[in-house]
Specification:
single chain, alpha/beta, 5 strands
Length: 150
């Protein structure tokens, strides 16, 4: 069935629950996991623009460092379940676009993600990355019901 699953993570309160569910799902299928997170590019701010100009390498390293804890915890959970897994961190401004790009790049055959469950005006105002991925993905998307308690 599914052999390579992309799991986008945003570092929110749902991350722990989503990782646990994705690991169990992948284990049941014998699939490999790629955990992904995107760091918002703050290069448009004064501080970010200055840092990017003075030291592009340090700028990128600092942004990726911010996301490393999310990814390293997820990869550790996958490895503890004896799954083949890796972590990918990208810098960008459009999470949906980056999710789909990484899915293509890593030849994933399923995207496994959570929804924050926002409804009504809040959902319209904030937009839903899950909805955007569902709308634009050529791959199947599994939307997990994750809970912040895990």
């Amino acid at each position: 069935m599914y052999r390579h699953i992309l799991v986008p993570l945003d570092g929110s309160e749902l991350t722990g629950s989503l990782v646990a569910q994705a690991v169990e799902f992948a284990r049941s299928l014998g699939a490999r996991l790629t955990f992904f997170t995107m760091v918002e590019d703050y290069g448009a701010t004064q501080e970010g623009a200055l840092m990017r100009t003075l030291s592009p390498e340090a700028f990128e390293k600092e942004l990726k460092h911010r996301a490393s804890a999310v990814i390293s915890d997820a990869v550790a959970a996958g490895q503890a379940a004896q799954l083949a897994c890796e972590g990918v961190v990208r810098i960008g401004t459009d999470p949906c676009e980056e999710i789909l790009h990484v899915a293509r790049e890593k030849a994933c055959d399923l995207i496994y993600m959570a929804s924050h469950g926002r409804r009504g005006l809040k959902a319209l105002a904030l937009g839903s990355q899950t909805h955007k991925v569902l709308t634009h993905s050529p791959l199947p998307v599994f939307v997990a019901k994750a809970h912040p308690s895990c």
